């Protein structure tokens, strides 16, 4: 039934699922059910064909009991208010799993689909155009307008945005600059994921993939599968997927399949991630790689392999394909790639899942390190960042395993138990 729920309802169902394992006073439970606040903004922009387009932006702040809000900003045609709320809830649990002094926030920008304003043809044009085909000028205008609108909610001690889907260090530079203009002085710590010269952290770009890799190796050691043939399939070849492919390859794994939004390639003898990066940069897709056979994103998920890394979209593993998953470990680099029902099927079939709020928490962890460096004006070398990240990822994995063994639940529920306990404890102390 929950496969028909929207993202917010799925996030709420996950909170409901851990209630039997965590003592949550009713008042605190009710507060965690909805975000503390959500801001919806609008702005009109002249786009590249000199027409006017209406854009909608959101910033959801779920729970600030442990500290400032933290979470990315995504630019995508399918952004909705419910999606942004769900992602802010998941950020609360992700920060709590990693024991970071943050609560969960999330932002998103999309275009208006109001049928009184835009025709179906116009919607199709905007879906294709936003944001990947936008000029730098229009993208900057959107970023600055969105930042101006949400400025009252953000700040180094209030809410710290970061990159997410279709946003990057340049977007963060514009956000930081626009916020700084408003207050009259430079505020590097208002965002993370910035360019290094503007106070970004070394290791931040690779952090999500590195955290996924570290926890996948921990899972293989825990399940005593590390001695098996080291094969990995990766769905999604953006920042997280491409860097994860490189890390697994460098560690001696055979990367047998990789895909992007247009499809994928498979080669049982292994693919070279560096060559795939070059092909994608040159042609726009990995499907143009010659040393492999084409396959669909759906086919990639069910390939026989030791590790499967969903690093693309939400809800790609469902009841329709969960029984066909042949990987022994699933390490979720993407947010919400597995539906609740599919989760139960994977668990029953003996597939060990490293859930998203643990597996992909490397990004927010190094964002935390960047925030510390920005506040202290003290910048760390990359080795120091990576060592701190590895230690924290391993510690979080071990704490989730403790709940997994104690409560005889799947790994996702174990991660939520660990996270919710921490947030509830903070709520009890502050109420």
From TrEMBL:
UniProt keyword Ubl conjugation present: no
Domain Glutamate/phenylalanine/leucine/valine/L-tryptophan dehydrogenase C-terminal: 201-431
GO molecular function: glutamate dehydrogenase (NAD+) activity; nucleotide binding
Keywords attached to this entry: NAD, Nucleotide-binding, Oxidoreductase
Pfam families, alphabetized: ELFV_dehydrog, ELFV_dehydrog_N
Entries under PANTHER family matching the protein: GLUTAMATE DEHYDROGENASE, GLUTAMATE DEHYDROGENASE 1, MITOCHONDRIAL
Protein name: Glutamate dehydrogenase
Source species of the chain: Candidatus Sungbacteria bacterium RIFCSPLOWO2_12_FULL_41_11
